[in-house]
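user: can you give me the structure for this one chain? tokens are fine.
assistant: on it. calling the predictor now.
[tool input]
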Amino acid sequence: MRHRPSSRLARLAALAFAAVIAFATLWPLPDQPQTNEQLCVICGALGGIDFLSNIVLFLPLGIALGAAGVRVSRALLLGAGFSLGIEILQWQVVAGRDASLGDLVSNTMGAVVGALAVTSHRVLLYPSPRMARRLASAMTVVLVVAASVGAWALRPAPVFWKYWSQWAPTRHGFESFGGELLALTLNDRPIPIGSVIDPTRETATFSEGIFQVDARLVPDSSSPGALLIARAGNPIDEEFELVQRGRDLLFRARRNAARLSLRSPVVALPGAFGGRPVGPVEISAYAGVARIELVAGNAAGVITADSIPLTLGRTWQVIFPLDIRDPSLHGPGAMAFLTVAILPLAYWAGLGVIGSATLVWLGSVALLLLGGLPMLAGIAVGGPWDAAGLTLGSAIGLALARVSAARTSGSGGRRLPTGTLLR
């Protein structure tokens, strides 16, 4: 039996993706310590991000398998077997790699989701009006639930453990801070290097994750990279970090995202260390419920300040695999994230809902995401970047729905086959 050219191409793509995955996961990292926690599902402080990243990593392999005609059940077996082989090699052979049950589960999920997306692509791309309404309704529920979790993740996290203050520590992902930290205080209490921060002895607001950090320092004028000025942490978690990135001040405070093994978002004060150095710089960072306030002032009396709202659009920083510290990307990232989030809903609503009811539906969801859920959760109401993302995603989804409708009506008035959700 001959295979169609498209099937051969899909099989070659599956082999190529498998090779890429093997290279990415089996390259030795001898400098990395091994945790020996093979039975954990969410492993480490960023285990949630690793779990989501592994799903995305195996997604193209699943798509290629589905395009090659592999059934979903067989894609599950192939994905699980391939992942199991990788985990065994990571456990017994490859240096510096951690094998875990969570990797096996997430890798298999990625392969299955990819194959399922291909085998059900017709019902997703060309649904009947009735199916489109069902998909739009389901997507609305998914958005509301995901946004509720995201809004909760951006709230301050309660403090349960003791932390230790660290001055200019050496940590992975940061360059050495070549400046000088002269003083560091937490809620107006000095915290010298190595001092213990006990939440039972701090203010009530600190135990709720609300606090203020002040520092006096001579900034590093030689390196444009990310320089860790100070942090408070322990072997399990981190409460805050102060970072210099060129002329910008970066600050991260522990949010509920850390309780899900995700990444707490970083905020920035551009130009905090700008201009000629005329002496020490005084910086202050207040971690509130709905926003973070940053202030920097130098000996010349130049003060830079900003109040950064924590809107729902910041959720992308919580789940993104890379730690994006460049402040110029934070706003566009929020817009892109919300554009992708609402686009499928707009597409299916455009295919299944008649007339102005589509705009009412999308407008109601957008208002809920911009204001309703954030106010209920206590985070900031969505700003211009959030609104732009929801508007752009809705516009693109509706435009694609019109193109799809024109295509199906142009095929003799008959809608294309919708297929089945499972094969």
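assistant: here you go. Residues 413-423 have pLDDT under 50 and may be disordered. Residues 283 and 296 are 4 Å apart (CA to CA).
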